[in-house]
């Protein structure tokens, strides 16, 4: 096989889509370097990426093709995918395309594997960016219809995709994503205190400041715990503003806790392991998740975690996380109190979560993805 991977969407900062794509490339590269049986001697890869895109280090069996534009240019990225990508891949000898970000070339002739991370534009359109809703609703149906195989990261996403596109069920395969091994290493890069001032003790959220993440519920629950228990722990929200930052600041200031809710902005990936390890607890309060990268990173790091009890996060973490009823401030408050003040529970959850997280790796993701590639060409 000569597999082409559409890496046009790979850009900083990494959201879930970029994290999954970069992780898959690292996993495939690791299989090649280690001579893993999942990759035969006849298999090679073509990676099509934007000018200046930050690719992981790839061995010789990977050929990188760069575009003339930077990946941040969405208009050119979309036009290139639909009108130029297939021809360039075919000219380079590719016989299968992997489209890892919801849509595939509309005017294409190569068989392709499609990755669908979630169907939020159908389930929660009011919480999604209008540009994304318009784009995905226009191009996803044809991409789903024409794909040889569809990869999803969870059974939850598979079920939601089937509900929206019933014909997709016969060709959908669940391939869980992985987690970078840096989160489980004994020593990690130190936290850059000069760039990011952190409180001595804090509860942590990692991810975009996005309406789908339901962060205001976390702020209110944190306020309730701090007030009732005279808690001397702050709240740190670490991630780029994806449209909800100003409102969240108003929420924190409106309840009189603006000084105890810290907004770090984007944190580079290399410093995330140290950030998780400094936290007293991690919270992921999302309305929904296709997979849940930050929760898996927290689990791998050994920080006791609290998460909304949505299907995909329960699927990911099983019984190793303290779940609460999604959107319920009182229930989240109780979950926070359990993890913060019950040291035996926190220690048990931490140990169980690390064991559970060890089941997820990018090498596993890459092996299972290679099997899907072979099915697509069979």
């Amino acid at each position: 096989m000569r597999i082409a991977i559409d890496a046009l969407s790979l850009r900083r900062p990494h959201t879930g889509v970029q994290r999954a794509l970069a992780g898959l490339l690292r996993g495939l590269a690791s299989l090649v370097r280690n001579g893993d049986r999942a990759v035969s001697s006849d298999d090679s890869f073509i990676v099509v990426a934007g000018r200046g895109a930050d690719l992981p280090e790839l061995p010789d069996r990977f050929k990188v093709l760069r575009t003339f534009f930077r990946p941040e240019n969405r208009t050119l990225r979309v036009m290139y995918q639909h009108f130029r990508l297939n021809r360039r891949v075919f000219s380079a000898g590719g016989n299968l395309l992997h489209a890892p970000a919801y849509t595939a070339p509309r005017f294409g002739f190569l068989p392709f594997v499609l990755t669908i991370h979630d169907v939020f534009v159908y389930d929660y359109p009011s919480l999604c960016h209008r540009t994304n809703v318009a784009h995905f609703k226009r191009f996803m149906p044809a991409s789903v219809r024409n794909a040889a195989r569809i990869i999803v990261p969870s059974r939850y996403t598979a079920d939601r995709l089937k509900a929206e596109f019933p014909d997709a069920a016969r060709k959908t395969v669940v391939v869980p994503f992985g987690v970078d091994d840096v989160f489980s290493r004994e020593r990690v890069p130190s936290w850059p205190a000069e760039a990011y001032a952190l409180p001595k003790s804090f509860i942590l959220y990692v991810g975009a400041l996005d309406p789908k993440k339901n962060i205001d519920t976390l702020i209110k629950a944190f306020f309730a715990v701090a007030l009732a228990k005279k808690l001397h722990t702050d709240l740190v929200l670490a991630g780029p503003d994806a449209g909800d930052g100003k409102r969240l600041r108003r929420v924190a200031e409106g309840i009189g806790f603006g000084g105890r809710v810290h907004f770090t902005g984007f944190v580079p990936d290399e410093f995330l392991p140290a950030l998780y390890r400094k936290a007293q607890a991690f919270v992921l309060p999302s309305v929904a998740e296709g997979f849940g990268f930050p929760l898996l990173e927290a689990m791998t790091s050994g920080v006791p975690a609290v998460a909304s009890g949505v299907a995909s996060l329960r699927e990911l973490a099983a019984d190793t996380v303290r779940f609460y009823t999604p959107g319920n401030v009182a229930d989240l408050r109780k979950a926070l109190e359990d993890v913060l003040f019950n040291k035996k529970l926190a220690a048990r959850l931490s140990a169980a979560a690390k064991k559970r997280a060890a089941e997820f790796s990018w090498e596993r993701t890459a092996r299972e993805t290679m099997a899907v590639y072979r099915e697509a060409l069979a």
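DSSP finds 14 helices and 13 strands in the chain. The mean pLDDT is 94.
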